[in-house]
Amino acid sequence: MTKLTTLADHLAADDTASSALKGVVSTIADTCARISKVVASGAISGSLGAAGHVNVQDEEQKKLDVITNDMLSQALKADAAVAGLASEELETIEATGRTGGFLVTFDPLDGSSNIDVNVSVGTIFSVLPAPEGKSPAEADFLQPGRNQVAAGYAIYGPQTMLVLTLSKGVVGFTLDADGQWRLTHADIAIPADTAEFAINMSNQRHWAEPIRRYVDGCLQGKDGPRGKNFNMRWVASMVADVHRILMRGGIFMYPWDAREPEKPGKLRLLYEGNPMSLIVERAGGVSTDAKGAILDIQPTKLHQRVPVVLGSANEVALVADLSRG
Ligand code: AHG
Ligand code: MN
Ligand code: MN
Prior knowledge:
Bound molecules: 2,5-anhydro-1,6-di-O-phosphono-D-glucitol, manganese (II) ion
CATH class of the largest domain: Alpha Beta
Low-confidence stretches: none
Number of domains: 2
CATH superfamily of the largest domain: Fructose-1,6-Bisphosphatase, subunit A, domain 1
Number of strands: 15
Largest sheet: 8 strands, mixed
Structural class: alpha+beta
Mean pLDDT: 96
Order of helices and strands: HHEEHEEEEHEEEEEHEHEHEEH
Number of helices: 8
Distance between the termini: 55 Å
Strand content: 15-25%
Radius of gyration: 19 Å
């Protein structure tokens, strides 16, 4: 059997990225490979369950949220090309004392509600340019998603995979038994059409009218305005729901809802919305907050939330049309 290309060989062959950026991606990928082992060891390593405190998002932290946040933070601080980092689990940004290079934002463990029930979780990351000649401050992280120089995620599922975009295209690697990332998905593309939607239906009564109308149309299937039957999936780990869409198409929605009307949505722009939107756009899909491209939003707050509608281009266009009225 011929050996599949390693991540290291794939990065070495990429002449669009600097060696410093490739190094940062390798640092993150190496850490995700180590996180995969901790996740897989579950109750054996005592890493399941609640940490016993609430994070800056006002959410109960799990032990694994804390463990994975520490692992990524430590690895990134040791990388000479990283000037600062921001995490969903940390109240403020952390500057490394270096200037230039890159800023990294991350959701160290996505899908916390699934950890203890052995359902896929993941890590999401975004790499932005750091300011030259000064230590980064919070304001330096507030860059539109279009500025990202790399984005990706690891999914800890039946297979552990790393999905990555640098300057173009989306590629996927699978972690082999020796802990090497192997290129298994050379050019990931999202089909423009789909008959599968993903949304937390239990929030239906809180949705705005356009989302209700869209989902109603799907639920009516062949007998309704869409004239075809739809399937529904909701893993409740964004990584897993987005990964499915990258593999076979679909639409993922976590829209604004009326439970906490002052919040634009549940998902976070810098750790979830932006990296996933870059990956989806690079794979030929569309990602919107139902008004415009998520990647064009100028962030105003580190932990800013955003409504998210992403996936197969024609399906997302329908939701955007309904939302514009
Ligand atoms: P996190 O575990 O990082 O807080 O993210 C959870 C997010 C996302 O992964 C998922 O799409 C969504 O929350 C699920 O929300 P519900 O529990 O409301 O379904
Ligand atoms: Mn998350
Ligand atoms: Mn998380």
